[in-house]
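chain below, 170 aa
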Amino acid sequence: MNLRDEFRATNRRWSTLGFYERLEQAVIYILTALIAVVIAVATLRLAMAIFALVTANLIDPSDYAVFQAVFGMIFTVLIALEFKHSLLVVLHSRTSVVQLRSVILIALLAIVRKFIIIDVQTAMPSLIAALAGATLALGLVYWIIRAQDESTLAQSASEQSLPASEPPAR
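prediction:
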C-alpha cells in the first residue's frame, strides 16, 4: 500500500471516529513522529560512536566497557523501535489500547539492556536480585498472557469453523 492509499484509508476511517477517538489518533500520530525523531537521533549517535571507536582503533570485543556502551546504545534504539511499533499497531487496528503484551516486551527489553550495561563489580547484589525478580515476574506474566491469547484464538477459530445451525459433534 503506497502512502497516498494509506492517507485515503486514514481519511475514511477518521470520518467514522468520535471526538475522543480522533484525539487518541492525533496523539498517537504525534508520539509516533516524536519517537521516529528519537530513533533517528539515537541511530545517528550510535553510528557516530561506532565510527569514532573504529577510527580510534578501540573496537575490541574483549573490552567489556566498549561492549556495554555499544550494546546499551543498540538496545536503546531497539526499545524505541518496539515502542513505535506498538503505537503503529494501535494506530492501524481498531483497538484504542496499547496491547499489554507489547508493554511487557518493552519492559523486558529495558531490563535486558540494564543487565548488559550494569557493572557487576560495583552493582549491589540487591539490585541484581531485584532485576532478576522483575525479569522473572515479567516473563511469567508474558507467558500467562500469551497462553490466554492462544486459547482465545483457538476458541474463536473453533467457533468460526462450526456452522451456527449444527450442534458440535460428540
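Helices lie at 3-15, 19-55, 64-92, 100-117, 125-161. The CA atoms of residues 39 and 77 lie 6 Å apart.
thats it, cya
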